[in-house]
Amino acid sequence: MLIQPLDIADIDIVAEMLAKMWEKDIARGIEHIIDFSREVVLNMFFDPQLALKACDDDGTLQAVALARMKNEVNISEQWVEDFLAANNDEERKRVIDATAYLLRTERDLLNLMSDDSAKFSFLLSYKHGYANALQEALKRLLIDRGARWTYHITDSTCSWQYFDSHGYERIHEELVKPFSTKEHPYYCFFYRKRII
User: Fold this and answer.
1) DSSP labels for 108-157?
2) What are the residues whose beta carbons fall under 8 Å from the beta carbon of 160, sequence distance 6 or more?
3) pLDDT at res. 45
4) How much is the pLDDT for 80?
């Protein structure tokens, strides 16, 4: 396993990985899933120094982890503006709605965080053990920057049970009605854990 910085040029690969995991849950077609996945990843990409990838020895990307300190600014705003300018009304509405949800949950979590906190923004792994290695590498970087706590946002479409079984404290749970159906309620969860 090779742990390296994640380059913004890797975002399309990460979006395709995420889309493959989500395609059974989203019925809009693969193009829309990849666009939505790219949007999610870009909304979580803050500091290139806190963006890591784990690759096999042959260079195949297998896992990604992104983190941010509390007061860092997201770098995806220009991409969102470009996407909105280049797409139809339906796609613009979808991006605006999703971005509003992501910004609101981010704001709500930041309000709970102290200044010595960091957030694991995004974690995706195709291979067992790679996610833990990336989290440990990011944790060391965050501690070096003064972080004492890590916070996470996840939802019911992800492996949220991981946090419950690995010593994280659930500090918020919310049913998100706009993304829920009767058969598939969509929940958002906030977790935290002391790292030092």
Assistant:
1) HHHHH--TTEEEEEEEEESSTTHHHHHHHHHHHHHHHTT--EEEEEEETT
2) 154, 187, 189
3) 81
4) 64
Beta bridge partners of 104: none
Residue 44: count of CB within 10 angstroms of its CB: 23
Tens digit of each residue's pLDDT (9 = 90 or more) over 128-159: 989 889 999 999 999 999 999 999 998 888 88
- Residues listed for the chain: 196
**Non-local CB neighbours of 117 within 8 Å, separated by 6+ positions:** 69, 70, 147, 148, 149, 150, 151, 192
Instruction: Average the pLDDT over each of 23-32, 68-77, 113-122, 167-176 and give the range with the smallest value.
Output: 23-32
According to DSSP, the residues that pair with 63 across neighbouring strands are 54, 125
The pLDDT value given to residue 15 = 87
Q: Would you call 135 exposed, middle or buried from its count of C-beta atoms within 10 A (0-12, 13-18, 19+)? A: buried
CB contact set of 177 (below 8 Å; sequence gap of 6+): none
Q: Taking 80 as the threshold, does the pLDDT of residue 35 lie above it?
A: no
CB 135, CB 120: distance < 8 Å: yes
What is the distance between the alpha carbons of residues 192 and 104, in angstroms, rounded to a whole number?
18
Contact status, residue 160 vs residue 172, Cβ threshold 8 Å: no
